[in-house]
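Example record

One chain of 106 residues, shown exactly as stored in the release files.
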Amino acid sequence: MNPQPRSSDASDRDAGITEALAPRLKRWIDTVLVFNVFLVIAGAIWFALAVALHSQHVEAPLQLLQRLWDPLFTPAIGLLMGAALLSGLLGWWQRQGLSRDRGSGT
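Predicted structure tokens for this chain:
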């Protein structure tokens, strides 16, 4: 006799795959966001140095920063702001769920 796989077996397997992917995906996203923070910090330091050098009539660092602004620094700053907003929203959502659970006595 050949046992037929039950639908619950398939859903259990899918849940196991999802649970295994979630920590890996979170680590990957965390790594990208950490790299992004350091990129934005490096861009801010570069901007400060470029402005200081511009006052000494050294134009190359500021010109390079201006060329890289749209393709590199604008998306990096946008990603940083979006991640901060999403983190705040998820934290608020979790607190709302916890306060609702406490209020219901569970």
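Notes: Helices lie at 7-55, 60-104.
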